Hints:
With 589 residues, the protein is an alpha+beta fold. The chain contains 14 helices and 19 strands. It is elongated.
Amino acid sequence: MIDNKNMILAIVLSVAILVGFQFYFDATRPPPPEQPQTAADGTQPAANGAIPQPAQGQVPAQTGAGGLQIPTAPSVTPSIESTRLEILAKNNRIAINTPRLHGSIALRGGRIDDLTLADYRETLDPESAEIILLSPKGVVGAYYAQFGWVGAPGVKVPDQDTIWSSTAKTLSPDQPVTLTWDNGVGLKFSRTYSVDADYMFTITQQVTNTGSSAAALNPFGFVSRRGTPETTNFYILHEGLLGVSDGTLSEIDYDDIKDQGQIKQTSTGGWIGITDKYWLAALVPDQKLSAATRFLHRTEGLVDMYQVDFLGPQQVVGANATITSMNHFFAGAKEVLLLDKYEEGYDVERIDLAIDIGWFNFLTKPMFYALLWLNKHVLNLGVSILLLTVGIKLVLFPLANKSYTSMSKMKKLAPEMTKLRERYGDDKMKLNQEMMGLYKKEKVNPASGCLPILVQIPVFFALYKVLFVTIEMRHAPFFGWIQDLSAPDPTSLFNLFGLIPFTPPEFLMIGVWPLIMGISMYLQQKLNPQPTDPLQAKIFLFLPLMFTFMLARFPAGLVIYWAWNNSLSMLQQWVIMRRMGITGKQALQ
């Protein structure tokens, strides 16, 4: 039995070390530089809207009714010398100016390809640049949304290089913008953009037929991203392609879509997009109509290209008739209350799942709401975390109380266990028999303290998940030197917390709060019954040190939570021990 425990402990320790190394390596490894395209191997729409066959090795465009195909993002080699601002200045544009968004729409192609988030900055400095969400083609990391129509062969539709006309200059919540284009052979296209005060665009497309022949068209939309972005690369958080189809969430990692090339689905309702930890760009097709959706990966030279798109049902515009298609586009921060509002107000199916709340969403969602409610009243997210932890501890008090009572009983038996080990140390079978006899005599069940702990694990994992993914923790101050709860503690023991003018390497950045967490973990472990096997006891004593190094570079908000949770657990355990007559040195033996 003891040998099995040793093996289990060794396996757990090895896995923990490997996971810690992988997390540190991936977190500190710089992303590979994007290589300029060396060959024009992408597909370009023809003047009549038909898409030629892709070059060898490329993924074909999505095919809809009648063999129609959605365009893929065109091949454009980023200029090493051109900056984002220089490229934005090359085309005529319509400004986007809302309380929470700044940017522009390109009249060439009618793309939403320039968007920054007014409420979120790159650094803690309030004067630093706004977070850039979307960027135009031609820059490294191009990221944009495109809407349009796909027509049958011979139907001339607007393409990527169409120059649209508009008399408007600015898109705002109270001022929609309409773009127009005439194909010269009987079809007049218009595209109206409107936006609310947050992050939801509405794109209304109309086609009026002034000719004598009917035309069949399918509406489409896509979001294209050039290059693989730097990600958190942590197993509990999804970053990549995702969407909801028929009520089911699909999460596709960048590596997975590289292997599969493309994934197709058909759904009535739902949405499809590309997500970062905090930001989302998502297409929301008409929720009442069936649409073909797709996750796509292809390469241009050495650069990975990602795309999500939808193809709506075919519409026929007869002579002297007009057809309309209305879809939505979300581009902004993943705020839980805002996504809930869109799910209800726009009837968008499960868009709240864009926030990776995990398997225990029935626990995670209420914790989101509780944390936001507390933060609204105390105006400090760090204090809100402490108060929420106290609340959860109170709810789980009966379970924890039972567990700690069992542990205290085991603690009282520690001297007797030591005597048995000294007497029967060489006879493991006899030792186990005597231990079981002692448990029976004292009416102690060694496993009785485990079940309550197992029940609590999903609750505290759900809280951990909330703190890891919530955007409210980004750039949120606590007290003292912690000015960003989403960033690691900036201090380090190895330069005496800033007293020595020396910047330690990343793995030695062990700050004040990680040390507090490690000490609390050590003390809590000492309060628990110690393993009878000396080797196991030494391994357990080493674990707090190992976890201090492993978790030191985690967000400060999570480390503060762990330290506070450990402290509350120790307080509860200490009170129970006092009631059972375990005091002083005996409690820490």
